[in-house]
Amino acid sequence: MSEKTTLYIVRHGKTMFNTLGRAQGWSDTPLTPFGEEGIHELGAGLKAENIPFKAAFSSDSGRTIQTMDIIMEHLEYPNIPYLREKRIREWCFGSMDGGFDGELFDGILPRTDAYKGKDLDNLSFEDIARGIMEIDTAGWAEPWEKIKDRIYTGFEDIAHKLHTDGGGNALIVSHGMTIATFCHLVHPENPRVRGLDNGSVTIVSYDGEQFTVENAGLMKYREIGRKRLAK
């Protein structure tokens, strides 16, 4: 009998740009010492819970790779397969990539046609994508159809491969907006997931056809690890 297929999706550790309040899409900065500390807590917490991971995946961004390396130090799985999947990268903010969050999300985007007449708290991901494309002078930003396709198929292919191999648990490191987008695509009727913390864990199960978001943004593994490391 196959095991249940479950994805443990981690948001990478806190980076330099996260700390400085800059939009970090396809641009990249390393984890800060504080960010590394948080992921050490996460790794220790996952180890303490004895979750048996069969495979590991991250985006191809340096911050997710660094996060995975730290977690692996704690899990001590020398033979676990680890692959990088570029489809689960963060959104690209085009010419505003690396700009200040406040300038992008509170200044420029609210003045776009995509945002006009809409409550900022109830914007859809499609609205946000349209707004980013509207202000992107470099032509790098992705349309919503491309964003949702690459993110969903990236996670779907990971889950399907694991499921056909008998199921089990996959450890995945990705990005805040990417994880929130995936949760929305799985359950579009639910409110948009917001503010996923660095080092949080979102748990998604897969039955071979459909996904279910079981928990979003869990911090309990970091809390368990923090206590374990303090002993």
From TrEMBL:
It comes from the Bacteria. This is Probable phosphoglycerate mutase. One of its GO terms (cellular component) is cytoplasm. Pfam families: His_Phos_1 (PF00300). Transmembrane segments: none annotated. Substrate binds at R11, H12, G13, K14, T15, M16, F17, N18, R63. GO terms for molecular function: phosphatase activity. The active site is at H12 (tele-phosphohistidine intermediate), E90 (proton donor/acceptor). The lineage of its organism: Bacteria, Bacillati, Bacillota, Bacilli, Lactobacillales. Gene3D superfamilies: Phosphoglycerate mutase-like.
